[in-house]
Specification:
- This protein has about 260 residues and is an alpha+beta fold.
- It contains 4 helices and 15 strands.
- The chain has a single domain, classed as Creatine Amidinohydrolase (Alpha-Beta Complex), CATH 3.90.230.
- It has a 5-stranded antiparallel beta sheet with strand order 8-7-9-14-15.
- The model has no long low-confidence stretch (mean pLDDT about 95).
Length: about 260
């Protein structure tokens, strides 16, 4: 396993790529209203990205799906966990929660982040799911330090927080290193797991992205070959940041303002 440590210059470029991601996600949050289709959001995101001098990272990506991913955004609604395909037919409804994953490429380096957006008035249960998932990510980010912490510590703090709140953490998908490839080593489970004992080191850039379900952690693939669904069809939330490791602590590259 090769973990690529990034130079100061590379991290500065990744910060620029991630700021574009953050600006696009902020616009998506603003425009995601009842009656808006996920394709409309996707087209807006792609246009904004090109205007800011970058390229969408996911469009045409050949991952686990049976064909290249067709969208710039991953738009996953309610029981859709991740990798939802934007569609003109999928219009948002009051009470939905919309998970949006987005990445960019700028000068050969990647940015990546995700948010889950409440659409209109959502239930108290859905709101708590969003709050717990975001808090789990925040706790994980605090773990990204160089004083002896290991990659496995990230998943431990996420699982402990999520399960204490009565929810479950998806295990089929993990966080990852990021840099000149969208997915680099190390893999970052969001749950307690054996192995993954690599020490967290300055120069790592980690994409941490807990996906948290209301019911079971188990997922299955939809008929489109990309979209992942909760097995029990209960709702799921997803938050992600790209985080650089420095000797002074974590630097969240995909955050515009503190707390965002």
């Amino acid at each position: 396993m090769t973990i690529y440590l990034k130079s100061k210059a590379e991290i500065e470029t990744m910060r620029e790529a991630d700021l574009i991601v953050a600006k696009v996600l902020r616009a998506v949050r603003k425009h995601a209203k009842p009656g808006v289709s996920t394709l409309e959001l996707d087209q807006m995101a792609e246009e904004m990205t090109h205007e800011m001098g970058a390229r969408p990272a996911f469009k045409g990506y050949q991952g686990a799906g049976p064909y290249p991913f067709p969208g710039s955004l991953c738009t996953s609604i309610n029981e859709e966990v991740v990798h939802g395909i934007p569609s003109a037919e999928r219009k948002l409804r009051d009470g939905d929660i919309l998970s949006v994953d987005f990445g960019t490429i700028l000068d050969g380096l990647y940015g990546d982040a995700a948010i889950t957006v409440p659409i209109g008035n959502i239930s108290q249960t859905a709101q708590r799911l969003l709050s717990v998932t975001k808090a789990a990510l925040d706790l994980a980010i605090e773990t990204v330090v160089t004083d002896g912490k290991r990659i496995s510590d990230i998943g431990a703090v996420i699982q402990d927080h999520v399960e204490a709140e009565g929810f479950s953490v998806v295990r089929d998908f993990v966080g990852h290193g990021i840099g000149r490839a969208l997915h680099e080593e190390p893999q970052i489970p969001h749950f307690r797991s054996s192995g993954h004992s690599e020490r967290i080191r300055a120069g790592m850039v980690l994409a941490i992205e807990p996906m948290v379900n209301l019911g079971t952690w188990e997922v299955e693939t939809a008929s489109d070959g990309w979209t992942q669904l909760t097995k029990d069809r209960k709702i799921s939330a997803h938050f992600e940041h790209s985080v650089a490791v420095s000797l002074n602590g974590p630097v969240v590259l995909s955050r515009i303002h503190e707390g965002e």
